[in-house]
Amino acid sequence: MTSHEVLNTADHAELRVRTEAGSTLGDAVMAALVVPQEFRQVQAHYPIVFRRDAENGEFSALALFGFENGENLFLGEDAWDARYIPLSISVRPFLIGRSRDEGGEAQVHIDMDHPRIAIGEEGTRVFDEHGQATPLLDEMSEKLGLLHAGYETSKHFFEALARYDLLEPFVFEVPLSNGSKQSLVGFHMINEDKLRSLDADALGALQADGHLMPIFMAVASLSNLTELVVRKNAKEDRG
Asked: Which Pfam families does the UniProt record give (predicted)?
């Protein structure tokens, strides 16, 4: 369940948010949406894969944290074991919404049903005693702006991938230390052969539109699948 409200000092003057990590706080997820503008940071830690929506056929990009639903192999006791957390994860329980007026400006909303909403004196304040934004809210507002801009422009990125037919489905076999295997299915990745076969004009167009760098970052990120297997086996060995 979600309960979105426009964030304001009148209704949320005493609001506090929990900022630590934890499975009970919504961090036990297999993957999270990412936007091309953050691919450089994401690829340093996580594989970047693509998923096609079964209803509308549109693609989205995901940072992969595990190999099965609810598995986050980067989640520790109260922190992430990674220097970068994708924007769509780190902004919660805040989100971008729009006013009811057609074409209204984007607004900061908050999901009051999210487990990160603190009770009593727990958590970090969103507004100070004078009704001014705290450093937490300033940081969240900046991240929301980056995420919103990324969503707005990612459509062109996926259009470019489709134009050059650069996405292909793949199956990844996860070799477990107990001798069994687990298969990762249902995702797409960049087809490196087709990328290498693009002519100078196509590569120039991708570069001019700012798409070439995130494509390369997505390709480079797949080396993290090996590290993800290492984390998976370490978890299995711990029981």
From this structure: SapC
| Per-residue model confidence as pLDDT tens digits over 166-218 | 999 999 988 887 777 888 999 999 999 999 999 999 999 999 999 999 999 99
Which residues, including other chains, have CB under 8 Å from residue 92's CB and lie 6 or more apart?
26, 111, 114, 116
**Of the candidates 168, 169, 147, 164, the residue with the CA atom closest to the CA atom of residue 209:** 164
What pTM did the predictor assign? 0.91
d(CA 203, CA 73): 36
Closest CA to 186 of 46, 54, 47: 54
Strand extents, DSSP E, 22-129: 31-34, 48-52, 59-64, 94-98, 106-111, 124-125
**109-152 per-position pLDDT tens digit:** 999 999 999 987 789 999 999 999 999 999 999 999 999 999 99
Listed by start position, the domains of the chain span 4-231
* 225 close to 183: Cβ distance less than 8 angstroms: no
